[in-house]
Amino acid sequence: MSQYNYVLEISYDGSHYNGSQYQPNKRTVESDLKKHLIYFFKDIENLIFAGRTDAGVHAVGQYVNFISTYKLDTNLVLLHINKHSKYIKIIKLFIDKKQFHARKSAKKREYVYLFSTEQLPVYLSNYISYMDCAVDKVLFQECLNMIIGKHDFLVFQKTGSNVLTTVREIYQAKIDEFQYKVLTDSNKSIMLSKITLQGNAFLYRMVRNIIGAIYMIASSNNKLSPSEFKKLLLQKKRIFNFKPAPSSGLYLNKIWY
After folding, report:
1. N or C end of the chain, less CB within 10 A?
2. Contact at 8 Å (CB) between 252 and 58?
3. Overall fold of domain 108-256
4. What is the predicted pLDDT for the residue at 202?
């Protein structure tokens, strides 16, 4: 019997989910997506995600693949699911080579993090993180520059994660600013900060931990220097306590194959 490797590019609103990965008795991206797919593909066993996202984290271009013996019109499946799925939308659905693996075949991933130090309208609270202290963007970028290249990011992964290696390579790390026009008041705008990280792969919660640690250094209520951040990379242990940045501002933005 022939088997077909279906590949999806999806976007989702993570504020409605307890993360992407299946968890018993919890609403996740995987459980919702599988519920829609199994209507067409009765033999689905596993959904393979390119990257795991936490509760509240969004995706603009997440990739998923699964194996099925059913050969169906992918356009009809896409249209049907997008009509009935409120918080997950399929951008692309196609059949690829059997060896394609959403996670292992990925060459590069990009995460984007949005935050503001100004009070946000309530309708943005799930999509942009609010930071309560002003940030020195020069210091922030100085720390981001330190993670570019190949490093052991052990200290920035979630405790208890099981991976073969904690070494990852970062290709790009930058912070930019732009004005956001408030929808309900055309005369008002908010200054937003956008952090972009590109790398070959990321450890679980690595992005949020890196941003949380740098925020402690670059925010106005701290006196830590960038050298303290560099020690984290070199010593492989937490030399000061930091919290992960809130999940609401994080987006899995793009994946390259």
Report:
1. N
2. yes
3. Alpha-Beta Plaits (3.30.70)
4. 96
- Token pair recorded at residue 192: 């937003």
CA distance 213 to 137: 14
Taking only the tens place, the pLDDT of each residue in 74-110 is 999 999 999 999 999 999 999 999 999 999 999 999 9
Angstrom distance (rounded) from CA 145 to CA 143? 5
Task: Let me know if domain 4-96 sits in CATH 3.30.70.580.
Answer: yes
Tokens linked to 39 = 């209507």
> What are the residues facing 151 on neighbouring strands?
168
Q: Is 52 helix (H, G, I), strand (E, B) or coil?
A: coil
Which residues belong to the active site? Answer: 54
Residue 130, beta-bridge partner list: 116
Ordered by start, the domain boundaries in the chain are 4-96, 108-256
